[in-house]
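thread: overnight batch results

M.L. [08:02]
morning all. the overnight job finished for the chain we discussed friday. pasting input first so we're all looking at the same thing
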Amino acid sequence: MSLLRIAALTLLLVAAYYNHFDNAFHFDDFHTVVDNTAVHTLDNWKQFFQDPAAFSVLTTHQVYRPLVTLSLSADWTLAGGANTRWFHISTFLWLIVLAVTLWALFARLLRNEGWAWFATALFAVHPVSAETVNYIIQRGDLYATLGVTAALYLFLTARSPLYLLPFAAGALSKTTALVFPLLLAAYLAIYRDRRWSSLAPSVAATLVLGLLAWRMTGAGFNPGAASAGLYRATQGFVSWHYFTQFFWPAALTADTDMTSVAAYSDPRVWSGALFAAALLAVIACTAKRDKEAAFGLAWFLIALLPTAVMPLAEVANDHRMFMAFPGLCLAAGSLAKRLPRARWVPAAAALVLAASVTATHFRNEVWRTEESLWRDVTVKSPRNGRGLMNYGLTLMARGETRAALDYFERAAVFNPRYPILEINRAIANGVLGRDGDAERHFRHAVEWSPAQSSGYFYYGRWLWQRNRRTEAAANLERAVALNPRDFAARSLMAEIHAGMQQWRELDTLVQDTLSIAPTDATALRFKATLAETRRHAEDARSKAEAAPAPERFIELSLAHFRSGRYLDCVEAARQALRLRPDYAEAYNNIAAGYNALRMWDEGIRAAQTAVRLKPDWELARNNLNHALAQKAAAGQ
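M.L. [08:03]
and the structure it wrote out:
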């Protein structure tokens, strides 16, 4: 392998991707990276291999990809937080490694370094590859492809079980790599240069790795397809769609509006089957005359099998082409090698690469921000309810709530029972002051997805903002019970416990949170708060004990109020009343404590008693007027 050609390949990749390094986090990046405290420290690295919950905070997405999670944690540490630049640099460096490995494999198969270089470059700068390179969490596709490619190269060259190591690494990044024995079988069937018994080690390794992945998948994992049979029946047509994107990738979209067929009689079923049959026929016919082209086409079909068999929520997704496209690039390189040696051939190849670099550059710009990405989705996938919703979210983030709600309503036409959409419709209506509509949508979200924590969390947050504390706490507790890694719910529950002076409950929650995530910032903050309030309470108690009763309880009550322990303030004042039932100062402290807790009715009653006992006491009247005004403002 020429170092000059490796340098040229690297420069070509830089030309294609130089404008992508500051692109944003998108979609699944948030629940696997940004909101996932498990990856925010490398101290948890063992957990990545032991607990699928470390992959995502969403129970429906907790799968076993420990090497991906480890790489994300390393990038978070190196970046010092949610700085996407290092994440993209990391992915890009691995793309270079994959390109060099792929070139070594293609050079061995094609026996021509020049056309192997072209086939590799075509894959690396093809705009389809940009769908994976720009999508941080989908680096799993890159790692899996690298594992399979390196394993195949070592199988052909090392003549030892060493090839199982990169294969295992690929499978621990994404289970799509488990197609490796099928790739080997296709190679043996076409080239016939090894015994079939050579498949045995890879088959055994696949069984072990597949069983491990199955055992380590979270109990709440939900692939999402409504009908497994109809999903699979659509995949032949999806394969045709992917195949056409190799030649004209103008329809690339981050979230397609393609759906499963509604019935097995749908024309897409038989047309997809016809395409698959035709491709298999081409492979069979060319296997003797052009083994590399036949193997490349077989690679394309085999690499699509995992997502064709597993009934996923999206019937198609453009990043799924990443592992399949090396096969088409190998076939293209083999066909190009057979062209006559004319000057126009390398010129045409250079033109193809230049067009690919340009298209990738423009595709990177689409992935620049959440707004640019989802705007593109609404144009190319106008019937995609999730795309319309996500674009609406970008508008709401800019303060354009009415425009956002319009997109949410349009999305509801295509996704009428979509719990996440209901949450966002509720939030938007709440911002616009339409509380009745907001609550209706929140209730729909909980009703339609009772096993997920997100609906309970957002409903609980909304209830808390409206001072409906008991209902808020019940919903947040349900959210945490359903998903112990819902740290947003835990954080708000901690705020509620602290605000209501529920120190015992707060201490329990903090300890439980730190047992799951020892570096959780909110839990550590409240741990410090608990320690501080305990210290203040002990100091206040020791000082108050020297004063004569019932005055010592008033001093204790005031000390609790100053340290923010309002329920303790109320309780100390009540102790004073047991000793002196007509103690106006005790009633005033009770009023102040309840007012601080926004418990206006209780505060009003206590302040009225204080005023009755001391009619000219201005402080008690101020507490009474404040509680009355706040109750009126809250519409209670």
